[in-house]
Amino acid sequence: MEPEYTIGEIIDRLSAFDRDAIFRMAINPLFPMEHTAGSIVSTVDPQGRNVVYLAERGEQLGPLPKSVAVDLTWHAPVEAPPRRRRGATGNL
User: Fold this and answer.
1) CA pair distance 15, 9, nearest whole angstrom
2) pTM of whole model > 0.85?
3) CA distances, 62 to each of 31, 33, 91 (Å)
4) Would you list the domain boundaries of the chain?
5) pLDDT tens track, the chain, 92 positions
């Protein structure tokens, strides 16, 4: 299981990216899709810790690009099998 990140860690990681880049969420490693991000809210969990939630806006944009699923290690890099040359069909 991956560790949970603090807001400070997320800010540090995001600071390496272009501030004008579009933000999307990658969801569901088995059938990866991309979604738009929505509201951000905070609360206190039962252990008394502050927790911030980022909601999906409810707009599924479609399949996640394969290269992103590979970068997230959700999918292994796969190359297409080599193609065999087929003989001609039909009568000449």
Assistant:
1) 10
2) no
3) 10, 6, 44
4) 7-71
5) 677 899 999 999 999 999 999 999 999 999 999 999 999 999 999 999 999 999 988 789 999 999 999 999 999 887 777 787 777 666 65
